[in-house]
Amino acid sequence: SFSLSDGMCGLEPTDSLQCVTSTSSKILVKGGTVVNADYQQNADVYIEDGIIKLVAPNLKVADDVRIIDAAGKFVMPGGIDPHTHLEMPFMGTESADSFFTGQAAALAGGTTMHIDFALPIDGDLAAGYDIWAKKAKKSCMDYGFHMAVTAWNDKVAKDMEILVKEKGINSFKFFLAYKGYFMVTDGEFLQGLRKCKELGALPLVHAENGDAVAEGQTRIFEQGITGPEGHPLSRPSVLEGEATGRAIKLAHFVNTPLYVVHVMSIDALDEISRARAQGIRVVGEPIASGLALNDSVHWHSDFQAAAKYVMSPPIRPAGHDKALQAALANGVLQLVGTDHCPFTSEQKAAGKHDFRKIPNGLNGIEERMHLVWDLMVNSGKISVKDYVRITSTACAQIYNIYPQKGAVLPGSDADIIILNPNRTTTISAKTHHTTIDTNVYEGWTIKGNIEVTISQGKVVWDNGQLNVEKGAGRYIPMPPFGPLFDGLEKLDAARLRSYNPVDRTIV
Ligand code: URP
Ligand code: ZN
Ligand code: ZN
Ligand code: ZN
């Protein structure tokens, strides 16, 4: 439910969300178990003006401080979702959540920051950045941007430099799929990798073999399989494994770190695992849907019931989900995203007669924190500290904004969640906050409930009550040369030393 509007926050009448402004800027979160990625303790957390000031047991505070009782609960850094697509033009339509509605949903689910994928406009990165910055003005939580690189020329290279040096972007996504739209060739990818390395920006890759996907789609469709089940059949995991391996090898050739987005399969996992065992700097990001679901959902007899799961790379057969969970637990994969890219039933209906036209994408920004708790902590696969690491801290570190984000430490931004491990929550389109009419986790009941979300030191989610403010969200610039670049110059030097040309006398 939503609280009544105070009429001060600039909401337009069409907005489905209402808001009130939280007045108290001083908060004490009392008596909880404070969990960071490396340490957990029973302590109070004192917050003032959006910043965590103190973390210690038995703090005494003045009368004007709001006290939130967290006894028996976990007090943790707010979630950071490294992978979202809000109001993104895609496949003839636009993803259904705006920066405002998507972020409100995120806050209701314990996520206090996300990194959204800005797209170039007709190949123009600078123009794309401007459009995304404008869309994001209505934000109610903190956010950052990745930028996609969908072509290669001097202007793209120059814009990458400007975005890194002046606009706070430190990651670029390259698509090896979506032939004819976003896809880049190996040659273009290679140039992009070199530029990323030079700038200290992290290259991200959508790893599927786009030529093979296009061929597979035509072949499956011409065999008469026109429904949603044609989607996973046309782009099996072998194509994800091939592209993941290729991307890792090209990045290794350039000696740059690489980040693989939406790792969905054992095939991709094996490539990442082997590379990491060789000391290659590759990071893998599974997403909530890949951890939680399997491909049987595409065979539902009702079109809509199946189409809501269509995303790329596709949700894989049973077994891949468990392997991804295990890889998260053992450290082969480092952090969890969502690829939140929601479309309504009406939008999905564009592909009623042709699975190739179903807009690719599904929800998750609101569900990720609860799902990961359920799949990973309730199952005993990881500790609560590891939960904090894979939902928040690792993301902040990789994108070089730690400890401003990703920690409950003095000096960090006051982005905090309070999770009650004994209360259950049920996911449903009837009660969720994203704008779409379906939910791929419909009916899931999870033990563990995020009762309170604090964003920038304000209580924005409080036992079912959302108090968000349009325009309160801030752009978080992300500096280049994050931890994945540490020592890379020494590896480069070692490579150079190993190049021993033969000194021949030509007669
Ligand atoms: O199906 C998906 N994943 N839609 C969003 C675009 C992308 O490839 O991440
Ligand atoms: Zn307001
Ligand atoms: Zn992608
Ligand atoms: Zn995506």
TrEMBL record:
Needed co-factor(s): Zn(2+)
Assigned EC number: 3.5.2.2
Keywords: Hydrolase, Metal-binding, Zinc
Keyword Metal-binding (UniProt): yes
Pfam families according to UniProt: Amidohydro_1
Protein modification: Carbamylation allows a single lysine to coordinate two divalent metal cations.
Claim: Iron-sulfur is one of the keywords in the record: no
Assembly and interaction partners: Homotetramer.
UniProt protein name: dihydropyrimidinase
